[in-house]
Amino acid sequence: MVYENPDGVRIGLEIHVQLNKLKTKMFCGCSSDYHDAAPNTHTCPICLGLPGALPVLNKKAVEAAIKIGLALEGEIAEETQFHRKNYFYPDLPKGFQITQYDFPIVSNGKVVIEGEDGEHVVGITRAHMEEDPGKLAHIGSIEKSKGVLIDYNRSGMPLIETVTEPDMRSPKEARRFLDKFRNILEYLDVFDGNLEGAMRVDANVSVHWGTRVEVKNISSHKGVERALLYEIMRQKNVIRRGGEVIQETRHFDEGRGVTLSMRTKEEAEDYRYFREPDLMPMHVIDWIPAIKETLPELPDAKRARFMEQYGITDMHARSLTSKIMLADFYESVCAKGVDPKLAATWTADVFLGELNYRDLAISSYDGKRIRFIHAKDPKIKNSFKVSDMVELVNLFAEGKISDRAAVEVIRTMLDTSEEKTPFQIIEEKDLFKAEDDLVTKAVAEAIAENGAAVQDYLGGMEKSLNFLVGQVMKKTQGTADAKTARELIVKKLNG
Amino acid sequence: MAKWMNVAQIKEKIEESSAEEVTAHYLEVIKKNKINGYITVSEKALEQAKKIDAEGHNGPLAGVPIAIKDNISVAGLPNSCGSKILENYIPPFNAHVIEKLLSAGAIILGKTNMDEFAMGSSTETSYFGPTANPWDLERVPGGSSGGSAAVIAAGQAPFALGSDTGGSIRCPAAFCGVVGLKPTYGAVSRHGVVAYANSLEQVGPLANNVRDIAALMDVIAGYDHKDSTSIDSKTEYQKALVEDVKGLKIGVPKEFFGEGIHPDVEKAVWNAIHKYESLGAAWEEISMPNIKYALASYYIIAVSEASSNLARFDGTSYGFRASGDNWHTMVSKTRAEGFGAEVKRRILLGTYALSAGYHDKYYLKALKVRTLVKQDFDRSLSKVDVLMAPTMPNPAFKIGEAIEDPLTLYLSDVNTCPINLAGLPSVSVPCGFTDGLPIGLQIMGKPFDEPTVLRAAHTFEQSTDYHTKRPQGVA
Amino acid sequence: MITKEDVEHIGWLARIDVSEQETADFMEKLNSVLEYFGQLDELPTEDVAPTYHVAEIYNVFREDIVEESLPQEVVLENTEDKQNGTFKVPKIG
Ligand SMILES: [Mg+2]
Ligand SMILES: [Zn+2]
Description:
Chain B is of the alpha/beta class. Chain B has 15 helices and 11 strands.
C-alpha cells in the first residue's frame, strides 16, 4: 500500500530541545536546575547579558550535540562555530541570540518513523546549538497585557534546534516523528521531556505542494497534531474558496485550537547574522569515536532485539521501547523469570494503557521502581515496582486470578499510593476467583459466535475443534494455553 | 610630595610614609581638577589604602594608585562608558584585569572619562563633557581613553588602564605626552570590559614611562578562562627592559607618512629613527600597499560589531529607561535619548553594513581587506623586528574642531587602526613637541613580541628626555 | 546611497527613534562615510579569505561545573522596575 497524500500535504518541523540533563547552562556556570526556583536566582553577568560579560562554551553541550547528531545518523561538521542572531525582544538580554548559522554542528540526518504506509524516512536538514532566552509572564492576558515580567533563570539554557525536511505527509506522521525524536533523545540521556518548556516545536506546513506557512510555538505533541489539522483545513478552505495561501508566520492558540496570523513575509526580521567574535570555532570530529562508544542501544535496535530475544510481537516491542525507562522496566521483569510474552502484554497493553488513561508520564526508573508524574499536575505522582509486576503476572499465569482481577490490581495500585503488594490487594478485595477469567470468557464467546463450527464438531468433525481453539487464541491474543482452551471447549460443549 | 612620580618612587614613598598618604595626595591633586579627567572618584580609595597599610605592603603594586577607564567593570563603582544610558549602572562584578590589580595591591582612584562607548578619538563624545588636554586646556586629550591619558599627564594618577579598539590608548598617549601600549590581541583578558568591537580591542596600560607600562602588564596580562580569546603567552614584560637596540631592524612604512601629516610630526619621528640608528639599530623604508584601505575596513568591522554589542542597552534590566507604552517603543526611545549622536551614527552604520543586501558589500568586504592588511604586516615583520611611524599624523586639535564631521574624526585613526586589524602589539612613546604639544612615536611589533617593542621604547626613552617634560599650569 | 527610508528602516532594526530633523543629518553624515567606505570596491578580493579573528584558536571550552549565581537582590539592584523578583517592562505591543 502506498500513501497517496491526496491533499499534497508537506510538513517540516523545527524543534527546540533543552539539554536539561546538563548541570550548567550553555555559556556560564549557572545551574540548569532552575525549574522550581524563585525568579532570577539562577543568573549571572553572562546569562543576564551585563556589559563586559563574555560567554564560554560548555563542553558537555557540544558532546551532547554530537551524540544527538550520531543518533540521527547525521554528519558532524569538520569546523563549526557560533553566530549572533540580532533581534530585540525582552526575553533576550543581549539583543542577540548566540546560535549557529551556516556551520551547524549536525547536518543530513534521518529518522525512520511508522508512517501512513509503513516505514517512512524523515530527513533531518540540520541540528544546531543555541541558547534559550529568558521567560516572560504577561500581567493579565497576552492581548490585554498591562506589562511583562521577566525571569532570566532560563536565559542561556543549552538548546538543540533540529530542522527536518518537509517529509511528513500528515499531522499523524508529524506526531509520530516527535514521539520518536523525543524517544531517541531520552535514550541518549541528554534530555528530560517532562520538565516544563523542555521541547518547543514550530511547524511548516503547505497543502497541494504550495506556499508554506509557519506555525510557531507549539508546546505539546498533542498540540502539534491539533495545530496542523487546523492549519491544513484552513489552507484547504482558502484554496477551495479560490483564494491563495500567503507565506506567513502564524501562532497556535492552544485554548481555542486555531492558528492566528503573526506576521507576513514582508514584515520578516533581518537578523544580521555574523560570527560571534567572543567564541572561537571548533574542530571536534576527532571526538566522534569516543562519543560513539558511549552511544546506547537506540530504540530501533532495542525493538528488534526484544522481538528476537523475547519472542514478542512488533507491536509490543514498539510500545515497550517507546520509553527507555519502560523498556528497562520490562527487561527487569523478564529477568525475574516471568514469561516474556505475558510480561509484554501486561506491561505494554495494560500497565502503559492505564498510565496513558490517567495522563501519567514515566519520569524515572532506578532498576527497582518505575516512577511517573501527572503530565499537567506534577503534584500527582506514583510508582510501580518490578517485583509487583512479577508477582502479578505470575499469579495470573498460574491461573490464581482472572485477567479482570489483574487489571483491577493495576488500577488500584495506580490510584492509591499505599505501599501494598498485588497479593495484599487481591486478598483485601477477595479477587481470587477464576470463573470469568479471560479464557473462559473467550471460550464462551467463540462458541456463541461460531454456531456452524459448533454444529460441525457436535456432528463429529474433530477439525472444527481446532478452529474454535484458534478463535480463543485470537481473542486472548495468544495468551491462553491451547490445551486448557481445548479442555474448556470440550467440557462446555459436551455439558 | 612630588606631583609626578613613577611606580618606584611611589613605592619608596609608601615605605617612608604610607599608602594612605600617597592615595590622599592623589585625591588632593584630583580635587584641584581642571581637566574633567575622572567621571567617578572612588570613595573607597582611602579605605582601600588603609587596608593595604594594615596588611603590610604585599603584592607588586601594593598601595600604588591607578585610574581605570570607565568601560572596565569595577564592582561597586559606576561603569558609565561615558554614556547617559549607563549613567547609573553599577556592575556587580570585577573585570579580570581589576581582580588582578586588586590582588597585586593596587588602589583604584576612580573611573576616567572617555568617548561614549569608546567611539571617538577626542573624548568629546562623553555624556559627562570633554576632558581637556593638560598641555593646552583648549585642546582635546585624544581618545577614546582620553581621561586615562590626561590624568597621568596632569599628575592625577601615576598610571592608568585604557582600552584600544583602533588607537584609543595610543592616540591619547601621543596627544598627552605619555606612554601607552596596545597589547597583542589575546594577551589581556577582555572579561568585564564593555565591548565596542570585540575582535579588535584590547585593554592596555598608560603611564609616564615604559618601565611602569611593563610593571602593569606583568600584573594584568595572562590567560583568563573567562575570555575565550585569551592566550597564555607567558610573556615577562619587565624582564624585557634591556637598554640595548644594537642590531635591531626597524621598518619604516612610508604609507604611515601620508598626505596631511604635520611637518613637525614627520620631523620628530625621523629624528627618533635616526636616534635609534645612532644607538646601533638599522632602519629601512618599506611599503605596505594595503594600509590605505585599513581605515575603511577597520570602521566597517568596528561599527558592525558595535551595532550588535550595544543592542543590550535597552532599558530592560539596567541603565537608563525612557517611558513608552509598549516595550519596543520604550526601547526605541531609551536608545534615542540614552545614546549620543556619534554612538547612534555608528550603530546605524553597523546595522546597515550587516543588513540584508549589504552584508557582503561592506562587512564581508572589510573582513577580506583585513586579510590583506594583515598580510602586509606579516610580510613586513618577517623582514624587520619592529615598525616605526607617527602615532598620530597631527598634534592634539582644538575641542570642537572636528566633532561635527565624523569622517574627519575617523581619519585621525589612520595610523593606529591598522594594528588592531592585525592584532599586533604597538606602543606610543613621546618623541618631541610642536608648539608645546607632545608628539608620539609608534613602535609596532610581531604577535606577542611586546618584549622587543618595549625594549625599543625603553631604550629610546632612556636616551631622550621627552618623557620627563610636564605640562605647566594644570592642577 | 542611504535614503530617508533606509534611515527609518535601520532605525527600526536598531531600535533607535530617529526624528525628522535627525534623519536629514544622519543621511548626510552616513552617506559621506559610506562614500569613503566605497574605496574598498577598487580592491579586488574575490580570492581573499575573510579574517574574522586574528587569533587562530580552536576549541575553547569550560567544564560542566556549577558556579555560584548572583543573589536575586544583586541581580535586581540596577533597576527600579521590578516585581516579585522579576524585571518589569511595558507590554510587548
Ligand atoms: Mg532557534
Ligand atoms: Zn549565568
